[in-house]
Amino acid sequence: MGFLTRAAVLAAAAAAAATVAVAGDEPDVHARAFHASGAAAGDIKGTFDKFSAALGDDNGSGPPAHDGRRSINWDADGVPFDMPGDFFNTAVPRGAVFHAKDGEFRVSNPPPVQHIDDNRFTSLNKKLAVQLKPFSAPRLFTPLRDNVVDVRFEVPGKRGSKATTAGFGAVLLDVDQKHVTSLAYYDVHGKQLAKVAAPAKAGGLSFVGVIFDRPVVARVRMVLGNAKVTDHDDGHRDVVVADDFVYGEPLRA
Questions:
Q1: Which residue has the higher pLDDT, 27 or 101?
Q2: Closest Cα partner for 31 from 207, 183, 194?
Q3: Are the C-beta atoms of 38 and 133 separated by less than 8 Å?
Q4: Residue 223 forms beta bridges with which residues?
Q5: How far apart are the first and last CA of the chain?
Q6: In percent, how much of the chain has pLDDT > 90?
Q7: By CB atoms within 10 Å of each CB, which of 11, 53, 174, 181 scores lowest?
Q8: Residues 177, 39: Cα–Cα separation, whole Å
Q9: Mean predicted confidence (pLDDT) in 72-80
Q10: CATH 2.60.120 fits 3-252, yes or no
Q11: Which helix (H) or strand (E) holds 69?
Q12: Residues whose CB falls within 8 Å of the CB of residue 110, separated by 6 or more in sequence, listed in order
């Protein structure tokens, strides 16, 4: 991306974002938060694209890079229904490792070769599927036994090699309640740098993400609603699942 083009992208991204106060031991670090919500994927795509472009070019599953971004949309046939937490830095080298209670995750809509009948988590919660509208169809992501996911960053393809990133954003589905679903960002010392809530849109899609002016984020904690995927989604319990993730290139910490 040329300098003038890059500058234009950053200017557009800044116009779409809001400044975030950064805590911890990084008083000279600045950050901007991006939020969007809507009834259809197109309602959040503009903000998602600006966030992505502000991080740089997509490095896919390539070797470690000095800049740019990585993304996960879950849709490849090779992603297993019962995905291991380190799948996206072992089988697919994208520098993201997931942690949750009992280390169990599910990725919906597995291909026929996996011999599992599931459509937007109907195998886990039959009533949930009608409330979930994918951003990039068809596959979605959730922890199985809790509603909290930690995303830790590693050098892509280098399992166990700790890394930091300059930003992380996520598409979240069926966020019913305000100020419940959130992303919290932590540095290498475990100190919280920032926390942002996802905008609510019952039966719709929400996007939330933060970009820092340098790679200071070692971990992101995602709180997805207040109930796990197998719970009944009602006025008190809010079941939220995830679609696309996008984040800055993980650089060796």
A1: 101
A2: 194
A3: no
A4: 148, 182
A5: 25
A6: 87
A7: 11
A8: 15
A9: 97
A10: yes
A11: strand 69-72
A12: 80, 81, 116, 118, 139
- Looking at residue 16, its pLDDT comes to 59
Residue type at position 153: F
* Rounded-to-integer distance, Cα 123 and Cα 112, Å: 14
Treating both helix axes as pointing N-terminal to C-terminal, what angle do 3-15 and 42-55 enclose, rounded to 10 degrees? 130
Whether 210 and 20 have beta carbons less than 8 Å apart is answered as: yes
Question: 0.70 exceeded by the pTM?
Answer: yes
d(CA 58, CA 202): 30
* DSSP label of 53: H
Q: Which residues contact 44 (CB under 8 A, 6 or more apart)?
A: 36, 37, 38, 135, 171, 205, 206, 207
Is residue 21 predicted with pLDDT exceeding 90?
no
CB burial class (10 A; 0-12, 13-18, 19+) of residue 74? buried
Task: Report residue 186 as tokens.
Answer: 């932590």
